[in-house]
Design brief:
Blueprint (H helix, E strand, L loop, with lengths): L2 H13 L15 H11 L1 H6 L2 E2 L10 H13 L9 H19 L9 E6 L2 H11 L7 E5 L4 H4 L1 H7 L3 E5 L1 H6 L13 E6 L7 E2 L3 H11 L5 E6 L1 H4 L17 E5 L1 H4 L6 E6 L19 E4 L7 E3 L12 H5 L6 H18 L12 H22 L10 E4 L9 E2 L2 E6 L3 H4 L6 H10 L2 E2 L1 E3 L4 H8 L3 H9 L10 E2 L5 E2 L2 E5 L6 H14 L4 H19 L10 E3 L8 E3 L4 E2 L2 E2 L5 E5 L19 E4 L2 E4 L15 E5 L7 E4 L11 E4 L1 E5 L3
Parallel strand pairs: 1-15, 3-4, 3-5, 5-7, 7-8
Antiparallel strand pairs: 2-9, 6-13, 8-9, 10-11, 12-14, 14-19, 16-19, 17-18, 20-21, 22-23, 24-27, 25-26, 26-29, 28-30
Helix pairs in contact: 1-10, 4-14, 5-14, 6-8, 14-15, 15-20
């Protein structure tokens, strides 16, 4: 089949698939039952009323998975699999189970694959990068809008003298660069994400299918590497629907992205028929369990597993790459996590024919429904002049992407008529979201390709930003040649335990803090008229009568004669808050009105708690309340604060630990 026909067929089939309906939401449970499930399984989120919209980074693990692990470890003995057969058998069973649950492969189909345990997606990609036979005749082709860890493979490629191509989706699928200049015996690694970690746009397995049908049958040394970490977080990657010879050769991912834990455990799924191409690097470092024999003294030699006939000895792929003792307790933990996931999120209306992958399919439907509801709600947010508040971002060449996953990237904009539609800084939004108890992700999101395209940043501008001191993860919001290009995006993402209430609370948050309504404009206009009349009457003398700052949120203010003004307000204003260490919630006068009697001030290197107001009883908050620096607060000074319990002492002074001042 010609490439264009192939692409047309799989996009038309994707677009004809039915969209999720309200029936797909909440796994067939009533709203009350689903709310009860969330309260029981995620008590930390429920008790703190947290809106967790960062599932793409990591979903929270259900408490039943944690307690199941505790029970399992207290009733069974697990030991080093090199010496304990039962542990080794359970680990091999988990290899098979992962292939069944995540990739829909039955026992017979699994014979063509092997799963290598790693410490995560990045470690899996590093393993591939160090094992691929790079040479001046080899090539690494990758999608430009890929996670940094996938882009990082090019480091090993360049070190080996190989050619590297960073491509748009159209160029990646066209394969034109391979029609000339590369002989049939050249090694080429094609790499792409099944789902963009920023925009949520999905490619699935279809590029692998296209490459296989157009190239791999004629060029046997081409391999396809798929980063499935983002895709698998809410959907299975069904390998059973494609012919084995057309499937990708290598797939990587991390389990905490799906189940919340265990962290530090990932996989490299290898197609056995392609495993012989991963040979270089095996003669450098070697560890226990990965060799068949070695010498004791000079001349030094080692024989890795499968080295007698690497072309045909494909049954021990994982033993060639798993050096030393694998994290067997983490693998046992994974079994408990999968059990809990399937018990909680398998559709409760259809339990007649249980399929291990049906749980992730149900999660996919649930999260797609929430994401579609959110996209529709975001698109409806318009300023008073009918300009959109939210500009959502999709993958480059979006008409070619298979679908949109439950991840949404966007930038907020001011009204066009009032300030020419200027983008709102991502750090500013993050600060407000944190105070509103909403957890999301902002910044470059480990995908410079997406950020550069969306913000119009060239490689020269990216280099200049770095030379000027800007680095990934900092709070700088705008830059580039015109100094007004966004240097970060906002991302929200949904997971198995997300709810419609999360969507509503987030939309209400945007409406409250960022949407400019007609009422606000009218108030501003009215104030302008009052100012104009005052000016006409000569009443233009405006002065600052008094100045207060509040070092601890909801406590009494401190009178000042002057203060340094920062981008976030007065220096040290609301720098601290009193937090319940059990729930993580910030205490306010709504819960404890007597907090107004606490009179803090900042003097030199001390946060000073002055005398209680005379004639009033002392305020006793209890030892469970701790003084902590407010999250997201950015001022010109940094404090490292030790835990401070409030008591009913008449005088209380607590010294800040290691204060660091940045003088301007």
């Amino acid at each position: 089949m010609h490439l264009r026909q192939t692409i047309s067929s799989w996009f038309s089939s994707s677009s004809s698939s039915s969209s999720p309906t309200p029936a797909d939401n909440q796994y067939g449970l009533s709203s009350t039952s689903f709310a009860d499930l969330l309260a029981a399984e995620y008590p930390a989120i429920h008790s703190s009323e947290l809106v967790h919209l960062d599932h793409a980074a990591s979903p929270p693990p259900p408490i039943s998975a944690v307690t199941a692990l505790t029970t399992k470890l207290s009733t069974s003995i697990y030991s080093n699999p090199h010496s304990h057969a039962p542990t080794r058998q359970e680990i091999d069973y988990m290899r098979s189970r992962v292939m069944h649950v995540l990739f829909c492969l039955n026992q017979r189909e699994q014979e063509g694959w092997d799963l290598v345990w790693t410490s995560g997606t990045s470690a899996s990609l590093k393993l591939v990068a160090e094992s691929f036979p790079w040479s001046p005749r080899a090539k690494y082709r990758y999608l430009k809008e890929s996670h940094t860890s996938l882009v990082g493979v090019r480091g090993c490629a360049l070190a080996g003298g190989a050619e590297v191509e960073s491509l748009t989706l159209d160029a990646f699928l066209s394969l034109v660069s391979l029609e000339d200049g590369h002989a049939r015996d050249s090694h080429v690694l094609h790499a792409y994400p099944a789902q963009c970690n920023v925009t949520g746009s999905r490619l699935g397995l279809h590029p692998a299918l296209s490459i296989a049908r157009d190239l791999k049958k004629a060029r046997t040394k081409h391999m396809v590497l798929v980063d499935a970490a983002a895709y698998l977080s809410t959907s299975p990657l069904d390998l059973s629907t494609f012919p084995y010879e057309d499937a990708p050769d290598l797939i990587v991912g991390s389990f905490y992205k799906i189940y919340g834990h265990p962290t530090g455990l990932g996989f490299l799924l290898v197609k056995r028929s392609s495993a012989h191409l991963l040979t270089s690097g095996k003669d450098t470092y070697f560890g226990g369990g990965a060799i068949e024999a070695l010498s004791v003294s000079s001349p030094y030699w080692v024989r890795p597993r499968g080295s007698k006939d690497i072309e045909t000895s494909i049954g021990l792929v994982h033993e060639r790459f798993e050096n030393g003792t694998i994290p067997y307790l983490s693998i046992i933990t994974l079994g408990c996590a999968i059990d809990a996931h399937q018990r909680l999120f398998t559709p409760h209306l259809n339990l007649t024919s249980f399929d291990p992958s049906s749980c992730l399919r149900a999660v996919s439907n649930h999260t797609r429904y929430l994401a579609n509801l959110t996209r529709k709600s975001l698109a409806s947010l318009k300023h008073w002049d009918d300009t959109p508040l939210v500009h959502m971002h999709r993958g480059e060449g979006s008409e070619r992407w298979e679908d949109d996953g439950p991840t949404i990237a966007f930038t907020l904009y001011t009204p066009s008529s009032s300030s020419h539609g200027h983008p709102i800084g991502h750090s500013h939004l993050l600060d407000l979201a944190t105070l509103a108890n909403i957890q999301l992700r902002t910044g470059g999101l480990c995908n410079t390709g997406v950020l550069a395209r969306v913000s119009g940043l060239s490689d020269r501008e990216l280099l200049q930003l770095w030379q000027d001191g800007r680095v990934c993860g900092d709070a700088v919001e705008f830059g580039g040649q015109t100094h007004d290009k966004p240097l970060g995006l906002v991302r929200i993402s949904f997971g198995a335990c997300s709810s419609v209430q999360d969507v509503h609370k987030f939309i209400e948050f945007l409406q409250r803090y960022f949407l400019v309504s007609k009422e606000i404009v009218d108030l501003t206009t009215e104030q302008s008229l009052l100012d104009q009349r005052a000016e006409e009457k000569g009443e233009t003398d405006v002065y600052l009568k008094s100045l207060f700052r509040y070092p601890i949120k909801s406590c009494a203010g401190e009178s000042l004669t002057s203060s340094r003004l920062t981008p976030h307000g007065l220096l040290h204003d609301r720098e601290f808050a009193i937090v319940n260490s059990a729930t993580g919630k910030i205490l306010s006068q709504k819960q404890c009105s007597r907090m107004v009697l606490i009179r803090p001030s900042i003097c030199d290197n001390n946060l000073v708690m002055k005398k209680w107001i005379p004639g009033c009883a002392a305020v006793c908050l209890g030892p469970e309340y701790l003084l902590k620096r407010m999250i997201g607060c950015q001022s010109s000074s940094k404090f490292h604060v030790s835990s401070i319990a409030f008591t009913n002492q008449a005088h209380l002074q607590s010294r800040l630990v290691q204060p660091v001042y940045n003088t301007l």
